[in-house]
Amino acid sequence: MPNVMIRKNDAGDLLFYVAKKDMEETISSVEMDTPETWGGDVVLTDGSRWYIDPISPPPTFPTTLRFKRGDE
Amino acid sequence: MATLTREETQNLIQEVLEVYPDKAKKDRAKHLAVNDQSIEQSKKCIISNRKSQPGVMTVRGCAYAGSKGVVWGPIKDMVHISHGPVGCGAYSRAGRRNYYVGHTGVNTFGTMNFTSDFQEKDIVFGGDKKLAKLITEINELFPLVKGISVQSECPIGLIGDDIEAVSKKMGKELDKPIVPVRCEGFRGVSQSLGHHIANDAIRDWVIGNRDGDTSFETTKYDVAVIGDYNIGGDAWASRILLEEMGLRVVAQWSGDGTLSEMELTPKVKLNLIHCYRSMNYISRFMEEKYGVPWMEYNFFGPTKIAESLRKIAAFFDETIQANAEKVIEKYTAEYEAIIAKYRPRLEGKKVMLYVGGLRPRHVIGAYEDLGMEVVGTGYEFAHNDDYDRTIKEMGDATLLYDDVTGYEFEEFVKKVKPDLIGSGIKEKYIFQKMGVPFRQMHSWDYSGPYHGYDGFAIFARDMDMTVNNPCWKSMQAPWQKPAEGEAEAVAASA
Ligand code: SF4
User: Fold this and answer.
1) Which listed residue (B195, B383, B389, B451) is catalytic?
2) B154 lines ligand 1 (CB under 6 A)
3) Whole-model pTM?
4) Residue A47 belongs to what domain range?
5) How far apart are CA B195 and CA B174, in angstroms?
6) Where would I find the Nitrogenase/oxidoreductase component domain in this sequence (chain B) (predicted)?
7) How far apart are the C-alpha atoms of B131 and B136, rounded to whole Å?
8) Which residue of B has its CA nearest to A62?
9) How many Å apart are CA B341 and CA B461, to the nearest integer?
10) d(CA B328, ligand 1 centre) in Å
11) What is the pLDDT of residue B162?
12) Taking the domains of chain B in order of start, what are their residue ranges?
């Protein structure tokens, strides 16, 4: 369950950054992305899947959240 | 020599790897790559930030070097104690040329070396008492010191001293920030982890110090320069451009920087990062906690400077944007004259780089402005994200080498035959003796600044001075030279 910092890049995409692993990846899709909730299954551009319990109201970015690996 | 094709470069890597035993070969192969601009993610072609192989020459430093030497060291109004045996600090003292203004020993301490000089008894009985005494002494001898950082060397972590407790206690007693930094040299695979640890120490002990304090008057044009260590005056050459644009530079991290500048940084509107590797952590933190956005910029060479100035200005209003154009215009005649003078002398020359932090990718633009071509580049301690940023800057089919070993680098140079190498002091004399022009690109070979328009003039002059130095023609003793006529025959057959 790594700590992940989510921030927006210049183009407005969400970036998924794990400091410990030096991994910075763009998020390609989020299961729930509505004005009320944000979260669920998150897929990155490299194909890996992550999961976070949906948060409502949606967090403001940048912020640090704890994710689970999607295949766990 | 013509530029290598993709295949030739690949063969070259294979050839160089031949000498290694199987296991080492397998490992090193992952660190050497042929650049392919179509790749988006560097991890597909190159592995970085791994432990160096035992038995090969690496030029990496330790975590202590990353924290004391790089991040904390240049903060001039603090004393940075090299806590542990005397050597680590003594041998690295003042070698980095991060300039500052002030009276050394009175209100600034940049080039001085403070150490707790551990002896056997300190290792056996612990050095906490000594540290407390040392801190009191420093405060007595140098009353203008604004704060003290304790930079741990290897033994501190091994004997389990509690430097945090001492720092807390002494900090209360002296009413000054005392910052314990757990940057023992054995941590991590290179100095890179030292940067991270240093950033975390700043986060925990410095950044929040003025959180409730509103006495500092901010403007909407406040920026901070992050990750510019003022090597040979770099940060000054950058700062004036920002100021001419109408921005107010509140803090310089950490070249010529002060403790209070760091404390004020969360109050700025934009963090400008030059060295991404060593200071992205703290910038990310400030973005999250204080909502200060950050952006990377590059002040090497007029093309990149103009690009960066425009990008920075885009964060602000039209006045700043118009000013940015004015600044670029103001210097145009100046840098065009420099290019006109040096480009004909340097056109088409090939460069190989092997440096740290940001330079293996940032200086490429400056070389290109002079008509030179970077045919190989590599980092001592980069991570994936650095290579992500490098792939696009480098030409196709050029060489990438991560944590290159002494042997590999020499072999590459023998085959690629660059006209100039830019690397560190440990490589300098080897390559000069091989007859290859060399610039020391960590401390600018006792020159600089290289940032900004002013720096570009010096950069161009230095490169010309090195590449076209007549000494390279005198590498062979006269009696070893082929007789006249013979020389032409050799040249013709080559
Ligand atoms: S590795 Fe340890 S002993 Fe060596 S310079 Fe670094 S801190 Fe000092």
Assistant:
1) B195
2) yes
3) 0.91
4) 3-69
5) 27
6) 62-467
7) 9
8) B288
9) 9
10) 44
11) 95
12) 1-60+346-446, 63-188, 222-335
CATH class label, B222-335: alpha beta
Q: How far apart are CA B72 and CA B279, in angstroms?
A: 11
To 10 degrees, the CA torsion angle through B443, B471, B420, B464? 70
CB within 8 Å of B289: residues ≥ 6 apart: B207, B266
Q: What span, in angstroms and rounded, lies between the C-alpha atoms of B342 and B349?
A: 12
Query: How far is the C-alpha of A61 from the C-alpha of A6, rounded, in Å?
Result: 6
Burial class (CB in 10 A: 0-12, 13-18, 19+), B59: buried
ipTM of model:
0.81
CATH class name, domain B1-60+346-446: alpha beta
Question: Of the candidates B287, B383, B385, which has its C-beta nearest A7's C-beta?
Answer: B287
Same fold, B1-60+346-446 and B222-335: yes
* b/e sequence B75-93, b meaning 16+ C-beta within 10 Å: bbbbbbbbbbbeebbeebb
- CA pair distance B426, B440, nearest whole angstrom: 9
B382-407 residue pLDDT tens: 988 889 889 988 988 899 999 999 99
CATH of the domain at A13: 2.40.50.240
CATH no. of B63-188: 3.40.50.1980
